[in-house]
Request: fold
Amino acid sequence: MNTRLHYLGSAARILEPLQHLAILTCMDARIEVSALLGLRPGDAHIIRNAGGRASDDALKALAISQAVMKTREVMVIHHTECALGRFNQAQLAEQISAAAGHHFDEDLDSFTDPIAAVVEDLERLRLSPYLPHRDKIRGFIYDLAANIVTEVIHA
Ligand SMILES: [Zn+2]
Reply:
């Protein structure tokens, strides 16, 4: 057993996350998901993208997570000061186009209201026909400055 697998201990032999949990969050480098939630290696799937949005790709990952890896719970965690909330679609697309030298016109899921963005993602996940377990899908906002995670409660 190599050092890494030794570090993982019993988790090294189990592909399924021990906490049966999948987390969808932003790629922002300031979010240290495991430390924030007290997770250990092997505990949870962590799916990250720009904004932590419930994109088609994120939905595919969650479908695999639930159907194949037996996760039963989803946490969507967005955060304050998110670049997807600070820049709008046009600004982001313009910067990508300029940097890449090719016109970029894909939807980036930018948002103006972070709470509304969480609610929208929760609805996308709850409406997905590919997620067999939709009763424990919860949304949160991580306040970077205060280092506090708050649940987003909505009807
Ligand atoms: Zn972000």
